[in-house]
Amino acid sequence: xxxxxxxxxxxxxxxxxxxxxxxxxxxxxxxxxxxxxxxxxxxxxxxxxxxxxxxxxxxxxxxxxxxxxxxxxxxxxxxx
Length: 80
Prior knowledge:
The chain is mainly β. It contains one helix and seven strands. Strands 6-5-4-1-7 form a five-stranded antiparallel sheet. A two-stranded antiparallel ribbon has the order 2-3.
């Protein structure tokens, strides 16, 4: 069950390359309705509108809830 304010890791996590390092493609649910979810992610640049997707699309993408114990900033990609 998807919850507002929680952070989700993808079923198949990917590394996103940003200026300050490599991060997981995690998404934090900012707002949700019965049909739509709006989220923040390390890939959303400052000053941009937060993306909205259908609940179905988000639920297909989402894997585990990683909110508990999450760092204060976006999670760094663990090199394997």
